[in-house]
Specification:
18 strands, 5 helices, Immunoglobulin-like, alpha+beta, four-stranded antiparallel sheet
């Protein structure tokens, strides 16, 4: 039997635990726990480096332009397949849009395109900005990996596709700060032609001049190279007649009408540099123009 004089966590005289000993043991225990915690560092965060042999560039097909869409061209020079759960383009040159789900496995390939939307160009009030570096952020799984990890793919800088998008959108922005350019609300057929108006509506200071309007893959603009409209600095609105005719009459062309309704207008503010503004009629008008062209071309089923 243990003697009452021996050290113990139990006070034999009163039949209760010895408080001082309990505190001492609790303190030693906590120090051990803390020491164990300090000696075991947390696991490292998953690497954001791209998988070996996998890189990306940006592309854009003709059909992507009207949809405000890009292609992430993935190159995989390894024999290890890489699963892409989603993609997102990140650059200060464009507003960031939500992640695009992809659910695609890319094996060895020189190029496989994954489509993603992109945001509007970030444009200053004056002048055209330099294109900024871009990355493609993706959640991927490589080979036998079980969990997705976040990976950042650098886009080679400067990227020519991104540079063109920023240049074109910011050029249009400079014109539209001064005036909105749009087609009139009414389209009327006259013989084999469809007519409306080109309308300039004041938005900011400056005299705005439209120097020409080009046709599209499917429609010719009557006198487009000579078409001229001017919104004087003191005027709030101006309009000129606008007329189109079908540029081609094969059914296949209208089945593949990717850029049929993107009319390029060349315009300037206060006599400055001419810049391109894309004029696009509303979707309902587009459907009507297809029916009109089918009727004029005698394609049937319009």
């Amino acid at each position: 039997m243990r003697s009452r004089n021996q050290s113990s966590t139990y006070d034999w005289a009163r039949g209760v635990p010895n408080v001082k000993d309990v505190k001492r043991i609790w303190t030693i225990g906590m120090l051990c726990v803390l020491a164990a915690g300090c000696s075991s560092p947390p696991p490292p965060a998953p690497s954001a480096e791209p998988p070996a042999g996998v890189s990306v560039t940006l592309g854009q097909w003709r059909s992507d332009e009207a949809a405000h869409r890009l292609q992430v061209a993935v190159r995989n020079t390894s024999d290890t397949p890489v699963y892409f759960a989603d993609l997102q383009l990140v650059t200060p040159s464009l507003t960031t849009v939500p992640v695009q789900k992809t659910d695609s496995t890319i094996k060895r390939t020189a190029r496989t395109d994954l489509p993603i939307p992109y945001g509007k160009a970030v444009c200053p009030a004056q002048g055209l900005p330099e294109v900024r570096p871009a990355t493609v952020v993706a959640h991927v799984r490589t080979g036998s990996e079980q969990k997705l990890r976040r990976v950042v793919f650098p886009v080679p800088h400067p990227d020519p596709v991104l540079a063109r998008l920023v240049r074109d959108e910011c050029s249009e922005h400079l014109i539209r700060q001064a005036a909105d350019l749009a087609f009139g609300p009414e389209w009327k057929q006259h013989g084999d032609a469809m007519r409306t108006t080109l309308t300039l509506t004041r938005r900011g200071p400056g005299a705005v001049t439209v120097h020409s309007v080009g046709g599209t893959t499917h429609y010719l603009v009557t006198g487009g190279e000579r078409l001229r409209a001017t919104l004087d600095a003191s005027a709030q609105r101006a309009e000129v007649p606008f007329e189109i005719t079908p540029a081609r009459c094969d059914a296949h062309a209208f089945a593949e009408a990717k850029k049929a309704f993107m009319f390029p207008a060349r315009a300037s503010v206060d006599g400055g540099e001419e810049r391109v503004v894309i004029l696009t009629p509303p979707e309902q008008v587009q459907k009507r123009l297809i029916r009109y062209a089918a009727d004029v071309c005698d394609l049937g089923g319009g």
